[in-house]
Write a structure and sequence with these properties.
Blueprint (H helix, E strand, L loop, with lengths): L1 H9 L4 H4 L8 H5 L5 H14 L2 E4 L4 E5 L4 E6 L19 E8 L2 E10 L5 E11 L2 E23 L4 E4 L4 E5 L4 E8 L6 E6 L11 E2 L5 H12 L4
Antiparallel strand pairs: 1-2, 1-12, 2-3, 3-10, 4-8, 4-10, 5-7, 5-9, 6-7, 6-11
Length: 230
């Protein structure tokens, strides 16, 4: 694949950067998120050919947005050491299913209840959109809560987990991992994340589009992660 992608760069093609985002995937892929090798390669190729939006979150996370409901997440790096990727305890604005296509991860679920003596402070996150892109996130304090670990789930290749908007979890990724994320349902007005009580929250970094010059390195990383043994 990488030789085909490199051809776009060497010939000066701008299709990767200028093509419209695909409107939707087939109904089969939308209802049953794929987990097999061929399916993942098919989705990555579709994302490349259609010019799907490619974003980065920090140094060790890439996201390919195939449509408004389906994302491919690439955690870590196939050939470089990276620290444990642990986003912290949070919920999500939409319900989703996540399928591990490569690597493995831990999905730790928490029971979160309001408590005057709780061990965490909840913060509400609201996003501001400019021209359809996330410009920044407004973070404001909310309730003090007690968060108790209820299910530390290891998720292996081909396995999946479902998160509702009311569920709180944290993930941990220690090895190069690819997940297929399918959102469904309505979006809630805001997201919450938890910070140990008494600590100052670290401002959340938004997903940013990969720069023009960063596309080759990003696609090279994606190609090598797709090739990882399941």
């Amino acid at each position: 694949m990488i030789s085909q992608w490199f051809k776009h760069f060497s010939t000066g093609s701008t299709r990767l950067f200028g093509a419209p985002r695909p409107q939707s995937l087939s109904s089969e892929l939308k209802t049953t998120p794929p987990s097999g090798a061929a399916s993942l390669e098919q989705l990555v190729a579709q994302g490349y050919d259609s010019g799907a939006t490619l974003r980065t979150y920090g140094k060790w996370f890439l996201q390919l947005q195939l449509d408004e409901d389906t994302m491919l997440n690439f955690w870590g790096h196939p050939s470089r050491e990276f620290p444990p990727i642990t986003p912290g305890i949070h919920n999500h604005r939409r319900e989703f299913t996540s399928v591990v296509a490569r690597g493995r991860m831990f999905n730790r679920r928490y029971d979160v209840q309001p408590s005057d003596t709780g061990n965490y402070q909840a913060f509400i996150v609201r996003r501001t959109l400019i021209n359809g892109e996330v410009a920044f996130e407004n973070v404001s304090p909310s309730d003090r809560v007690e968060a108790t670990l209820t299910a530390p789930e290891p998720v292996e290749p081909g396995e999946s987990y479902v998160m509702k908007t009311t569920d709180f979890h944290s993930t941990e990724v220690l090895t190069p991992t690819v997940t297929i994320l399918h959102f469904r349902g309505e979006e809630t007005p805001y997201q919450q994340f938890l910070v140990p009580y008494g600590k100052t929250p670290t401002p959340k970094t938004t997903l940013a589009k990969v720069s023009f010059l960063g596309h080759y390195e990003a696609w090279h990383r994606i190609d090598r992660m797709v090739a990882l043994a399941r």
